[in-house]
Each structure stands twice: as structure tokens, then as C-alpha cells.
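FIELD: query
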Amino acid sequence: MTAQELDLIDSNTLHRFGGSVKIFCRVQGRFLEEAQLIEGKIIKAHADNDSEQVWEQLHALKGMSGTIGAKALAQLAAQYEHQVKSSGTVSSLSCDDLQTLSELILSSNQALAKLAASLS
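FIELD: result
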């Protein structure tokens, strides 16, 4: 794994799965699908100007990312969650912010997949 990939994830995340490589790999295999599902809900809620739904979905993404060890994504989701909650509006998130979130989901998934492959 590259240094950049290691910056995206917590390589010691296996303890969150009771040390089970099998469970980690199974969860990692579903990460991208689940994260993109949440991302779609964030984008829709943003378009609908629904700050509560944006906040809830960012909170869900933060938790899921933190659990699997996608630390950079969890931190960004937390930052965006705070922005939306403190401003009470979705306008605190720009289209560029949403694009950054999307890119980080993909790069986090790639780093987690490499970690899973190295553990298997």
C-alpha cells in the first residue's frame, strides 16, 4: 500500500471485527455499495434542500466509515455533518464538496480493498 492509501485508512482496523479477517473482508466487500447508496441519498436530499436528511446521511456515512477504518472519509463526513448541523442549511455544502466526498468514497474503497487483499 502507498503512503497516500495508508493516510486514508486505519490499517489496524481488524480489532473492530474481533480480529476476524473473514468478517472484515465481507464487510469491506459491501462498503462501496453501501457508501454509494448513502451518497445518493445525500445528493437527493441536497437537491431537495432537506438539511435534516443530509445531516442524517452524513452521520450514517461517518459511522460506517469509522467502523471499517476509512478514517479520512469518516473525518470528512464529520466535518460536513457539523457544517450542515451548525448552519441548518444544505447550502453550506457545495457541489465541489459533494464531488470531494464521492472521490474519497472511491479512494477509500480502493485502499480498504488492498488492505483486505493483503490480509487474505
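FIELD: remark
The mean pLDDT is 92.
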